[in-house]
Amino acid sequence: MSSFRGGIHPMKRQHGGKRPTRDLPIREFISDSVCIPLGARQGPPSVPCVKKGDAVKVGQPIALPGPGPLGLPVHASISGKVTDVVRMAYTGDTPVMCVLIENDFHNTWIDGIYGQREFSAITPESIIPAIRDAGICGMGGASFPTHVKLSIPEGARCDIIIINGTECETFLTADDRLMRETPMRIVNGLRLVMRALSVSRGVIAIEDNKPEALKSILAASANLPGIEVKKLRTSYPQGGEKQLILTVTGREVPSGKLPVAVNAVVLNVATSAAIADAVLQGKPLIERVTTIAGCVKTPANLLLRNGTIIGDAIGECGGYAKTPGKIALGGGMTGICAPNDQVPMTISTSGIVVYDEEEAQSLDEQPCIRCGKCVGACPSGLRPYILKHYCDEGDLIGAQSEHVLDCIVCGSCSYECPAQRWLTASFKNMKDKLALAAKGGNGK
Amino acid sequence: MSLRISTAPHIRKGVTTQKVMLHVLIALVPCVIAGIYRFGFGAALLLAISMCTAMLAELIFQKLAKKPVTTNDLSALLTGLIVGLNLPPQAPWWLAVVGSAFAIILVKQLFGGIGDNFMNPAMAARAVLLASWPVHMTKFIAPINGNFGADVISGATQLTAINSVNSPLTLSGADLFNHFTGNIPGAIGEVSKAMIVLGLVYLLLTRVITWHIPVTMVASAALMSLILGGDPLSNIVSGGLLFGAVYMATDYTTSPMTKKGQVIFGAGCGIFVCIIRKYGAYPEGVTYAILFMNCLTPLLDKFIRPRVYGAEKKQKEAKADA
């Protein structure tokens, strides 16, 4: 099995890693109310089209696409009454516009949803617009609008679609469960994308620590021309887009370019399933499977409606097992911290992981002992120990000469570092600084 | 509810500098036991003196320099132990004090403390002791093998004997076995090769080090001795080659960061050991070979670097496409 350079095998000891949730079936949880953020993904924030007091049905648009090609609509995830449309603090620094809906528990859908259309009845041209109208963005974490990803730019071509079922992140088993329980949706999503882009090769890539998912997807895709299932070595970050492309195709995405530069498109398994629902059933994206793990009483995989308050989801899992010290949306390696448990999850929230007070503490940073573990771990071939010096000194040029922009912020170097240095954090900081500087340069 | 906010990753491997040093200390326990068994309590006393000196030197220096005290990371303790293990068993006590203090203060702390020294502190200390007090540093006693009341008998290492007549080193079967088990005169920690191999296995299993440096160092020394007309096996089991390859050349701070660099570093060490042994004025080449390669490490790190994903391939691909 070919694979990318570097990589790590993150912990199994803390809360048993993936073990507590991997064998639990997906369970639906619908909360009393939701708070749907309209600017929680890449691209312009969507523009609200409902107001306080409006009654909404499940799947009804509550916000229209923002300006530009990246704009996406947002749909109500529960039926009920809009209680407020207001700017609220979210995980980032800036507050985002949110639509709050109170559940009437009738679960009334908009009309024209529950009809599975025939595969043959779907024209290739209709697929991408349907994906956009369903409000689909990448569900692997980056939340990039999927219709943009699938719009191959002029002059470029795509010859392979890769469905990312690696789920290499710690704690998370949502994708694993999805592959085991509804493999057909994932395979259908892949077939639709292949049809839309007239690509003849589709690969579903799964790490070898998920034998059941492999079996289930293999069965679902049997006898389908052009679709292969690839078993990959378990190693973090196998599911990193660039790493996955290298492992599956042997191609390397040039620095600063998108995967389409090497004729590849990568989609997460959940995104693929959402595409199938959108195109075959006309169902907008209003829910996702999220792993609730860590310091909660009964970890679970919950099917959550978009905008569920994370505290409600944690409550559904029996609440906190100990006093929480940190809550991160996403896995242990790349999760984003929530300021409190009253913020909502979104379509890109693959996991809600609670850390107790002890785990939330970080040890003091110590001097680098030049052990070279960071260099060995880096999947991008960087030299984190040198790069950190430049980042700490705020040297933008030096950091770029050490390829900070090729850092994928996977966290492997920090994970390995015996001196507990905040390597990834300083690189992320530097990348943000450079992005800001680039923006400022364009504005002038 | 007050939650901590931090950037990812939220989990760490749990390996700390202190744990790494502790692993190396544990890996040295067999050598320490063998050294004391072979050479008696005098050896134990020397080790204790050098360890205490190293810790005290670091503590006093950091207090005086008003720097944070880092003795907790155990690196000073380890340096002290290695300085001690490099001493002949009957060396005067002040040799241990001078060696450890030199290693910690001049080689480590004055260059910025842990991680900033460009030479292996214990190795540099040994070089200085060897140059300053050659008589004390090359007078070895025959092993007493647990017979702690016995009189000590002076001897010389095989290398000194062989080098003095300038003939290629070749050991016979029984001698080879004695070298391997440590039943020979020599420095406290160096003699028992079996115990060093045991330590190596421990360090590899705990993933403190990888095979790259020790294996290439020993292999290249074997090859080089063959080229120079010596017996590879005798060269490997004599002197401080194995001890140096396992515990000193693998020092994180003074060896290259990349695996490729480490292979070159190890090979360089092995080659220079043999050259110095054969042509040098000193009987033992391990110290200077490693120190020399320590000095080359920044250069190796400058030129041998991992290929950045997607960066340098661009031109090649462009050519291939054209």
Radius of gyration of chain B: 21 Å
Q: What is the beta-strand fraction of chain B?
A: under 5%
Rg of chain A (C-alpha, Å): 21 Å
Largest sheet of chain A: 6 strands, mixed
Most extensive chain interface and residues per partner: A-B, 72 and 43 residues
Biggest beta sheet summary of chain B: 2 strands, antiparallel
Oligomer state equals heterodimer
The residue-averaged pLDDT of chain A reads 92
In short:
The complex is a heterodimer of chains A (444) and B (322). Chain A has 444 residues and is α/β, with parallel strands linked by helices.
Q: How would you sum up this structure, described in words?
A:
The complex is a heterodimer of chains A (444) and B (322). Chain A is built from 15 helices and 17 strands. With 444 residues, chain A is of the alpha/beta class. The model of chain A has no long low-confidence stretch (mean pLDDT 92). In chain A, helix 5 packs across helix 6 (211-220). Chain A folds into three domains: 30-103, OB fold (Dihydrolipoamide Acetyltransferase, E2P) (Beta Barrel); 116-281, Rossmann fold (3-Layer(aba) Sandwich); 373-443, no CATH class. Chain A is 29% helix and 19% strand. In chain A, strands 1-14-13-17-15-16 form a six-stranded mixed sheet, sandwiched between helices. A four-stranded antiparallel sheet of chain A has the order 2-8-7-4, with no helix packed on it. Chain B is an all-alpha fold and 322 residues long. Chain B has one domain: Ammonium transporter fold (Orthogonal Bundle). In chain B, 62% of the residues lie in helices and 1% in strands. Chain B is built from 15 helices and two strands. In chain B, strands 1-2 form a two-stranded antiparallel sheet. The longest helix of chain B has 24 residues, at 41-64. The radius of gyration of chain B is 21 Å and the shape is globular. Residues 161-168 of chain B have low confidence and may be disordered. Chains A and B meet through strand 15, strand 16, helix 14 and helix 15 of A and helix 1 and helix 15 of B.
